[in-house]
Amino acid sequence: MEDVARRPARLDEVGVDGDGSPMPSSAVALPRKRMEVLELDMGDGVILYDHSSSLVHHLNPSASLVWHLCDGGVGEADLAAEISEELGLDRIEVTEHVRALIRELFMLGLVEDANDRGGPESHGEPTAGAGGGR
Amino acid sequence: MRDIEQRELNRRAFLRRAALTGVGVTWAVPTIQTIAATPAYAQTNGTPVDQGGCFHSTGVNGGCMPACADLAGCTGNQCGGPGGPCTTYCAPGQGGGNPCCNPGLCDPGNFQCSTDPRGVATYAGSLAGCV
Prior knowledge:
Number of helices of chain A: 4
Shape of chain B: rod-shaped
Helix content of chain A: 25-40%
Mean pLDDT of chain B: 83
Number of strands of chain B: 3
Strand content of chain B: 5-15%
Oligomer: heterodimer
Radius of gyration of chain A: 14 Å
CATH class of the domain at 29-116 in chain A: Mainly Alpha
Strand content of chain A: 5-15%
Largest interface: A-B, 43 and 31 residues
Radius of gyration of chain B: 28 Å
Helix content of chain B: 25-40%
Strand order of the largest sheet of chain A: 2-3-4
CATH architecture of the domain at 29-116 in chain A: Orthogonal Bundle
Strand order of the largest sheet of chain B: 2-3
Distance between the termini of chain A: 25 Å
CATH topology of the domain at 29-116 in chain A: Arc Repressor Mutant, subunit A
Largest sheet of chain B: 2 strands, antiparallel
Structural class of chain A: alpha+beta
Number of strands of chain A: 5
Shape of chain A: globular
C-alpha cells in the first residue's frame, strides 16, 4: 500500500468562494457530518434531510461514499488519497471530485469543520451498509 | 493518536467493503441533487373538496355524462372522449366515482354541443375548484 501523503488540505483550498461561509483560511478543514442532518440509505445513494434549511438532498453513490467518510478525522486530500488507494482509482481525478463535493457539502451546511467543535466524535464514524450498497 | 489511527482503519475498512460491493468500479462524479421540502409540497389526506355530488357518470342529473349527452343532447364522444369536458374535469381513474371539480358539470345547461361530430362539447359553466 502506498504511503499516504499527509499533506494537509487547507480550508482555503476547499475554497468556499466568497459567500461568507464561516470557514477559517488557516486551518486544515476536517469535514464532519453534522449531527443534526438526518440520513437515509437508499441503496443507490443516500437521502439527507436538513431540518434547519428544510432541504432534502440526494447524493449519488460516489457522493454517498465520501459523505460516509466525513468523520472529522482527515481533510479532503487525505480522503481522496484513501479512496483512490482502496478503490484503485486515479488519484488526481478523485481528488478533484472530492474537493468539489466537500466544497458543496460545506456550502449546503451538511458538514462542519471538526476543528470548530472539538475533535472527531463517534457520530462521524462510517456506517455499515453505506457506500452505494450494490 | 490511537483514536486517529482507529478512524483511519475504520475508513479504509469501509472503503474495502465498498470496493467489494462495486462502488469502485462505478465511481462517477459525485453529485448532489437538492429540493426544498416546504409545505407547498405536502399533501393532505383529509376530506375531499365538496364538488356538489357531481361525478363522471353518477350523481346530480346522473352525472356529467348523462347531463352532457342525455340531457344536453351531445354525443357521448363529445362529452367523454379525448378532450371532452367530462374527461377533462371529471377525469376517469381518480377513483371514488371520479368526482368532477365543479358541480356545474352536472348541469345540462352548461353544455353546448359541437356541430363537428368529431369535436368536443363546450362547457360554459363555472370552473371554480378546477385546477
